[in-house]
């Protein structure tokens, strides 16, 4: 553990560069990483589970804002939910169309 990667992304109209660190890994089951960007700290966990219909991907993210940025928590949370839903939909479409 301790592997780091840098992600450059656009969020709420701003370009962000995030450094994430992997803190837990269970092969083919679970991965957890933490990150920090400015006043924000977060931990994200992805779990993969086989089901009768295929595979279930579950994501849980916990974020903490510091200082005055806490006032924007509801807006950030709503934006993250929309972005994650859109990204997961894109991933599903890609996986289902290229799986054949």
Can you describe this structure?
With 100 residues, the protein is of the alpha+beta class. The chain has one domain (4-98). Helix content is 26%, strand content 53%. The chain is built from 1 helix and 5 strands. The protein has one helix at 73-98; strands spanning 4-11, 14-26, 30-37, 40-51, 54-65. It has a 5-stranded antiparallel beta sheet with strand order 1-2-3-4-5. β1 and β2 form a beta hairpin. The longest helix has 26 residues, at 73-98.
Q: Helix fraction?
A: 25-40%
> What percentage of the residues does DSSP assign to strands (E)?
over 45%
The structural domain count equals 1
What is the general shape? globular
- List segments where confidence is low: pLDDT < 50 over at least 5 consecutive residues: none
Total helices: the number is 1
Q: Give helix and strand order, one letter per element, not per position.
A: EEEEEH
List the helices and strands and how they pair.
Blueprint: E1 4-11, E2 14-26, E3 30-37, E4 40-51, E5 54-65, H1 73-98
Antiparallel strand pairs: 1-2, 2-3, 3-4, 4-5
Core attributes:
alpha+beta; five-stranded antiparallel β-sheet; 5 strands; 100 residues; 26% helix; 1 helix; globular
């Amino acid at each position: 553990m301790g592997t780091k990667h840098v992600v450059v992304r656009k969020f709420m109209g701003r370009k962000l560069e995030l450094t994430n660190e992997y803190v837990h890994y269970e092969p083919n089951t679970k991965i957890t990483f933490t990150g920090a960007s400015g006043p924000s700290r977060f931990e994200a966990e992805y779990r993969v589970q086989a089901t009768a219909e295929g595979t279930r991907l579950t994501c849980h993210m916990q974020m903490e804002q510091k200082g005055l940025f806490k006032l924007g928590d509801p807006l950030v949370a709503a934006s993250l939910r929309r972005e994650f839903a859109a990204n997961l939909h894109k991933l599903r479409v890609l996986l289902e169309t290229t799986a054949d």
